[in-house]
């Protein structure tokens, strides 16, 4: 996917705030927050785009850093953060080189809503390495994944691909995200999107 072009022409159908999708994400986050007090800790939103889900995390009481490589996306995110009246750090950088981007470490939650599954396996392995370096030992990674199949735009990745990119981590749960695209895109792209939850072994 050419993300820069997509944002420039205003094509961002992944910005899904449908109630069923939101409810599922909220259920996953409830689990990570259970028994803890606000602030819940540092959270990293990989490929934050317009910051939609990072802002959601900030509203819930996480100290959020969002990273993205596309300036147009980050501009949209800045506007949204301001309108939402929350604190969220936005960093321009590559998710395959998190340490070089200077985001720091100590992240207890790492969220990825759509970046990991479209990268090459070498880039995915780099994300796994970088996340392992910046996340706490008790961190949770939540990855939104489309299965690998022949389709336009998005590569997708299977469970084995997730596991090889995160060799130090264990997939604890896989669950449907309830993500919906407009009908025609749904038919062409067949997202069949799932949440993967990972913890260190
Ligand atoms: C499907 S969009 C998801 C955006 C946002 N997380 C959301 O759910 O609305 C994927 C995002 O990943 C970003 N991205 C792609 N490759 C990247 C990379 N190597 N480093 C940082 N961001 C990247 C794109 O610019 C885009 O904003």
What does this molecule look like?
It is a single chain. With 201 residues, this protein is α/β, with parallel strands linked by helices. 36% of the residues lie in helices and 25% in strands. β2, α4 and β3 form a beta-alpha-beta unit. The relative contact order is 0.15.
DSSP strand count: 7
The main sheet orders its strands as 3-2-1-4-5-7-6
* Proportion of residues in extended strands: 15-25%
Please give the largest β-sheet: 7 strands, mixed
Mean pLDDT figure: 95
Proportion in helices: 25-40%
**What structural class do the secondary elements suggest?**
alpha/beta
Bound molecules: S-adenosylmethionine
Number of helices: 7
Tell me, what's the shape?
Answer: globular
Quaternary status: single chain
How far apart, in Å, are the first and last alpha carbons? 32 Å
Radius of gyration: 16 Å
SSE order, one letter for each helix or strand: HHEHEHEEHEHEHE
Residue runs with pLDDT of under 50 for 5 or more positions = none
């Amino acid at each position: 996917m050419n993300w820069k072009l997509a944002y420039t022409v205003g094509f961002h159908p992944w910005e899904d705030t449908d109630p069923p999708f939101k409810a599922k994400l909220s259920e996953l986050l409830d689990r990570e927050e259970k028994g803890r007090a606000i602030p819940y800790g540092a959270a990293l939103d990989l490929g934050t785009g317009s910051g939609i889900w990072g802002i959601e995390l900030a509203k819930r009481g996480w100290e959020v850093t969002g990273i993205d490589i596309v300036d147009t996306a980050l501009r949209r995110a800045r506007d949204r953060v301001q309108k939402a009246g929350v604190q969220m750090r936005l960093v321009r950088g590559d998710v395959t080189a998190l340490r070089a981007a200077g985001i720091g470490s100590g992240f207890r939650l790492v969220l990825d809503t759509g970046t990991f599954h479209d990268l090459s396996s070498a880039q995915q392995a780099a994300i796994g390495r970088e996340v392992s370096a910046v996340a706490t030992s008790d961190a949770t990674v939540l990855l939104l994944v489309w299965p690998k199949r022949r389709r336009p735009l998005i590569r997708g990745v299977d469970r084995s691909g997730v596991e090889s990119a995160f060799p130090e981590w264990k997939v604890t749960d896989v669950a449907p995200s309830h993500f919906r695209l407009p009908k025609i895109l749904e038919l062409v792209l067949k997202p069949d999107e799932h949440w993967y939850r990972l913890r260190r072994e």
